[in-house]
Amino acid sequence: MSVDLVVENCTVVTPAGRVPDAGVAVEDGEIVAVGRSDRLPAADRTIDAAGNVLVPGIVDAHIHNREPGLEYKEDWESATRAAAAGGVTTVVGMPNTDPVIDRPEHLQLKFDRGEASAHVDFQSFVVVTSENIDRIPALDEAGALGYKIFLGSTVGDVPPPSDGEVLEAMKRIRETGKRLGFHEENGEIIDYYEAQVKAAGRNDPIDHSHSRPVIAEREAIERMITFAEETGAKIHMYHVSSGSGAEAVARGKDRGVNVTAETCPHYLWFTEEVMREKGNVARIQPPIRDEAERTKLWDAFDAGAIDSIATDHAPHTDDEKKVDDPFGNTWDAAAGFVGLETEVPTMLTFVDEGRLTLEEWVYHHATRPAQVWGMYPQKGSLQVGTDADFTIVDPDREWTLEDRHDLHSKSTVTPFEGESFVGKATTTVVRGEVVYEDGDVVGESGYGTRVDVDDA
């Protein structure tokens, strides 16, 4: 018997442990065997992983691919090309596009565009506003992965619902069985402090950070946890930036609330000093915090408050980011930057430093996000019969992102330019097809497909 693909001569790592001198066999896009290299079947194609590490395909459940409507920044093709190059096999797009993804026909448009051009598999969140609470069941039937509410001002200016509307939305979403995530910053707090900072004539990049204090994040988390406790809804906190916010998540978990949370590599890597070093290039919402909050965030991560890693990949053009004048008026610069090609190296560098193990990294970056969003075990695992998504990494490769223009996104602004890493994705496989290897994206545009959450 011969199968389609065998990867051999690697260490296979899952959250349960690692198996040296092992590999994976694939037939018809599914995993048919995982085991010692010498026990795998013959194959039409065999990849020698040269002693590197093979893990379940990385899942990034928080990217802004900008399509439809804002394709000049990014689109499904370029975002998923970057994902493939970064070792990411499944991405989930955010709904603050043009039009916003707030009704079934808009969701279908986003899916159709993805089917036409994506390199890796994908899904999408839908937004909940004051105007579409009655559409929640229809959006569920249309195949949305989950729901999102913006509690504070952010890119796209999607207005937040009132607290009463949030409660009503939670009740309706609970009936779908899906999860509701939040951009968790108290809008009234950040609007007040931003006005105060502007009135004082403060416009340095660090002033943007200080206009969105930690209390705005912590209060929003605590309030939504209280609402979820009342309604029984499953909730998620996107891009937790502070240790104080993560501690609030932990308290919710301790109370029995079904609350999950993610953080991003940039919150674990940088402190707010990056705003003084790289200016508006590092401007993002919520902002990167000070050293004390980063230390508490790591402590909360280690204690289990944080479920998953995601990037909040948010491309903007050089002009929108004011790259030519990075320390200019921060209120004129866009918030957000790309991250799909630096997330795996960042996390592998933390592994190299002893901050977490390979098994812990795989859990937070593949298995757990797939579980949180209902895609497991089809995604995020190496179980027989599941999608043959996996990422091969060289955990010892030392390299520096010397030129951001080497990245595959349309817009490439990132504070990780100039940073040095230990570890890199070498091969990316989606449903048995190699989409990235030897430094090149080799998969075809349009190969990626929507993850069917009903079958996941």
Automatic annotation (TrEMBL):
<feature type="binding site">
    <location>
        <position position="148"/>
    </location>
    <ligand>
        <name>Zn(2+) 1</name>
    </ligand>
</feature>
<feature type="binding site">
    <location>
        <position position="316"/>
    </location>
    <ligand>
        <name>substrate</name>
    </ligand>
</feature>
<feature type="domain" description="Amidohydrolase-related">
    <location>
        <begin position="53"/>
        <end position="435"/>
    </location>
</feature>
<dbReference type="GO" id="GO:0008270">
    <property type="term" value="F:zinc ion binding"/>
</dbReference>
<dbReference type="InterPro" id="IPR002195">
    <property type="entry name" value="Dihydroorotase_CS"/>
</dbReference>
<dbReference type="Pfam" id="PF01979">
    <property type="entry name" value="Amidohydro_1"/>
</dbReference>
<feature type="binding site">
    <location>
        <position position="64"/>
    </location>
    <ligand>
        <name>Zn(2+) 1</name>
    </ligand>
</feature>
<keyword id="KW-0479">Metal-binding</keyword>
<comment type="similarity">
    <text>Belongs to the metallo-dependent hydrolases superfamily. Allantoinase family.</text>
</comment>
<feature type="binding site">
    <location>
        <position position="62"/>
    </location>
    <ligand>
        <name>Zn(2+) 1</name>
    </ligand>
</feature>
<keyword id="KW-0862">Zinc</keyword>
<dbReference type="InterPro" id="IPR032466">
    <property type="entry name" value="Metal_Hydrolase"/>
</dbReference>
<comment type="function">
    <text>Catalyzes the reversible cyclization of carbamoyl aspartate to dihydroorotate.</text>
</comment>
<feature type="binding site">
    <location>
        <position position="239"/>
    </location>
    <ligand>
        <name>Zn(2+) 2</name>
    </ligand>
</feature>
<protein>
    <recommendedName>
        <fullName>Dihydroorotase</fullName>
        <ecNumber>3.5.2.3</ecNumber>
    </recommendedName>
</protein>
<feature type="binding site">
    <location>
        <begin position="64"/>
        <end position="66"/>
    </location>
    <ligand>
        <name>substrate</name>
    </ligand>
</feature>
<dbReference type="InterPro" id="IPR006680">
    <property type="entry name" value="Amidohydro-rel"/>
</dbReference>
<keyword id="KW-0665">Pyrimidine biosynthesis</keyword>
<feature type="active site">
    <location>
        <position position="312"/>
    </location>
</feature>
<feature type="binding site">
    <location>
        <position position="148"/>
    </location>
    <ligand>
        <name>Zn(2+) 2</name>
    </ligand>
</feature>
<feature type="binding site">
    <location>
        <position position="96"/>
    </location>
    <ligand>
        <name>substrate</name>
    </ligand>
</feature>
<dbReference type="InterPro" id="IPR004722">
    <property type="entry name" value="DHOase"/>
</dbReference>
<keyword id="KW-0378">Hydrolase</keyword>
<dbReference type="GO" id="GO:0004151">
    <property type="term" value="F:dihydroorotase activity"/>
</dbReference>
<comment type="pathway">
    <text>Nitrogen metabolism; (S)-allantoin degradation; allantoate from (S)-allantoin: step 1/1.</text>
</comment>
<dbReference type="GO" id="GO:0044205">
    <property type="term" value="P:'de novo' UMP biosynthetic process"/>
</dbReference>
<comment type="subunit">
    <text>Homotetramer.</text>
</comment>
<feature type="binding site">
    <location>
        <position position="183"/>
    </location>
    <ligand>
        <name>Zn(2+) 2</name>
    </ligand>
</feature>
<feature type="binding site">
    <location>
        <position position="312"/>
    </location>
    <ligand>
        <name>Zn(2+) 1</name>
    </ligand>
</feature>
<dbReference type="InterPro" id="IPR050138">
    <property type="entry name" value="DHOase/Allantoinase_Hydrolase"/>
</dbReference>
<dbReference type="InterPro" id="IPR011059">
    <property type="entry name" value="Metal-dep_hydrolase_composite"/>
</dbReference>
<feature type="modified residue" description="N6-carboxylysine">
    <location>
        <position position="148"/>
    </location>
</feature>
<comment type="pathway">
    <text>Pyrimidine metabolism; UMP biosynthesis via de novo pathway; (S)-dihydroorotate from bicarbonate: step 3/3.</text>
</comment>
<feature type="binding site">
    <location>
        <begin position="335"/>
        <end position="336"/>
    </location>
    <ligand>
        <name>substrate</name>
    </ligand>
</feature>
<comment type="similarity">
    <text>Belongs to the metallo-dependent hydrolases superfamily. DHOase family. Class I DHOase subfamily.</text>
</comment>
<dbReference type="InterPro" id="IPR017593">
    <property type="entry name" value="Allantoinase"/>
</dbReference>
